Amino acid sequence: MATKTITVTDIDSKEYDVELIDGQSLMEVMRDSGLSVLATCGGTCSCATCHVYLDGEWPEHLTVPGGEELDILEGTGQYEPGRSRLSCQIPCAEVEGGRLTVAPD
C-alpha cells in the first residue's frame, strides 16, 4: 500500500512532506512531525492554533466545516473563506494528498 502524504508550508515558508496516518487528524500528523502547530486544545475544536489554509481543490473534497469551526475561524482575523480550516477537524482518511499552509499566529 502506497504512503499518502501532504505538502505543508510552515510559518517560516519552509515546505515539508508529511505522512498521513488513517485514524488521525491533519493536526495530529503535523504536530507529531514537529511542525509549528500549537494545537493548544488538543483537537477539540475550541481554539484556532491549528488554523491552516488549504491550497487548490481541497475544499470541494472534504467534509464541510461545521458552525462551531466556522465561528472559531471567523474570529481569528485571518479567515479566508473557502481556504481556512482547523486541521484538527480534517481526518487524514479524507485527504488524497495536496498542499496546505499553516496560518500565522
Describe this structure in words.
It is a single chain. By secondary structure, this protein is α+β, with helices and mostly antiparallel strands. The protein has a single domain, classed as Roll (Ubiquitin-like (UB roll)). The protein contains 3 helices and 5 strands. Strands 2-1-5-3-4 form a 5-stranded mixed β-sheet. The protein is globular and about 40 Å long. It starts with a strand and ends with a strand. The mean pLDDT is 92.
CATH superfamily: Beta-grasp domain
Q: Class, according to the CATH hierarchy?
A: Alpha Beta
| Fraction of residues in β-strands | 15-25%
Q: Outline the biggest β-sheet.
A: 5 strands, mixed
Query: What is the number of domains?
Result: 1
Strand sequence of the main sheet, in spatial order?
Answer: 2-1-5-3-4
List low-confidence stretches: none
Mean pLDDT: 92
Structural class: alpha+beta
Q: What is the 3D shape? A: globular
CATH architecture title: Roll
Question: Radius of gyration, Cα only, in angstroms?
Answer: 12 Å
Element order: H for helix, E for strand: EEHEHHEE
Percent of residues in helical segments? 10-25%
The CATH topology assignment is Ubiquitin-like (UB roll)
Describe how the helices and strands are arranged:
Elements lengths: L4 E5 L5 E5 L6 H7 L18 E5 L2 H4 L5 H8 L9 E3 L12 E4 L3
Parallel strand pairs: 1-5
Antiparallel strand pairs: 1-2, 3-4, 3-5
Task: Describe the structure concisely.
The protein has about 100 residues and is of the alpha+beta class. It is built from 3 helices and 5 strands; from the N terminus they run ββαβααββ. Strands 2-1-5-3-4 form a 5-stranded mixed β-sheet.
